[in-house]
Amino acid sequence: MGIIPVSERASWNASFGGPGIMSGPLSGPWYSTHKTQLLGVLLAAASNLLISVSLNIQKCAHLRLVCQTELKPYYTSKLWWCGITLLGLGEVGNFAAYGFAPITLVTPLGCVSVIGSAFISVFFLKKTMKTADILGGTLTVTGTYLLVTFAPNVPQELTARQVQNYLVSWPFLVYSILEILIFCILLYFYKRKAVKHIVVLLMMVALLASMTVIAVKAVSSMITLSVKGKMQLTYSIFYIMVALMASSCAFQVKFLNQAMHLYEATAVVPINFVFFTTSAIISGVIFYREFQSAAFLSVFMFLFGCLLSFLGVFIIARNKKEEHLQIPFIDCGHIPGHKLTGKIQPDSHSSCYGTLNKEDDLVKSQS
């Protein structure tokens, strides 16, 4: 075999992403075309990891307050405020990530917070790591890798005029009409028929979330361009998108809180993640046309990565549900300010099972 000349080898490396002459490992064409998207991926992953840390810190702060003899409001805890600060930073980072990466890539990376919470809780809350956690984490990490690898590579610099054109395009108008009809039907059953099934509630959350992510990406992109010197904040569409983002987010939180109040978090979290991610991907494909020129294999592998992430989140959430069910009753001896004076779990074969003894009967029985 002959030796490839230096000039030809440099040209080959430049064409296929290899290192060229006097260049580093990230100097190939892949990095030059994906560096903005890679920044968004890293920002979204780090932000979701920060959110999982913040949630565990808040949980730790609540547990510390419960164990104290004198109950204090949670907002007096410095640890709780530390968790809230990290949560705010994580949400700001997620918001900024939409300005650098497509919706179809940023939204599924929310699974990082789920697997992050499962592993970080081992250190903060002293929970035990189970095989289901490792399996779910492995599936989620594998799915995340496929998402990042086969995500659409589309330009992320969105001007106000581009957003205006997308807003009046016929695919989005048809999509908006269908979404409004479905939302009105669900709202009718929720308000008039008092149907508060978890699927109904989280479907409404997902429909609102699709509008939220569209507005968030538009606002984030226009702010990013304005910071770079291309002012976009003078266009009215920017403020329209800000209003859409705020209103849809407010109603989204309302229905999500209703679901959290009626159902266990172990059921709400995975279902909401699947619905939210699916609606966000659909809205990104229709509004921003993110898969317009993608190959069939890339689309298939991307969807397969989503499926693996969904499965991993469900396995982790199911494992948490089984841990919760292992506690058969409340240990009243651990309630602050109360002493343990009798049996916590009464004898089911006793004649007084399910009733409370009067104090005078207790005295008579002791005498």
UniProtKB/TrEMBL annotation:
Keywords: Membrane, Transmembrane, Transmembrane helix
Protein name: NIPA-like protein 2 isoform X1
Membrane topology category: Multi-pass membrane protein
Family to which this protein belongs: Belongs to the NIPA family.
Cross-referenced InterPro entries: EmrE-like, Mg_trans_NIPA
Taxonomic lineage: Eukaryota, Metazoa, Chordata, Craniata, Vertebrata
Intracellular or extracellular location(s): Membrane
Record-level GO cellular component terms: membrane
PANTHER family assigned to the protein according to its UniProt record, in alphabetical order: NIPA-LIKE PROTEIN 2, PTHR12570
Chief location of this protein within or outside the cell: membrane
Entry-linked SUPFAM superfamilies: Multidrug resistance efflux transporter EmrE
Domain of life of the organism encoding this protein: Eukaryota
Bilayer-crossing regions: 38-58, 79-100, 106-125, 132-152, 172-190, 197-216, 236-256, 268-288, 294-317
Gene responsible for this protein: NIPAL2
Entry keyword annotation includes Ribosomal protein: no
Molecular-function GO terms, alphabetical: magnesium ion transmembrane transporter activity
Organism: Lepidothrix coronata
Pfam short name (any one): Mg_trans_NIPA
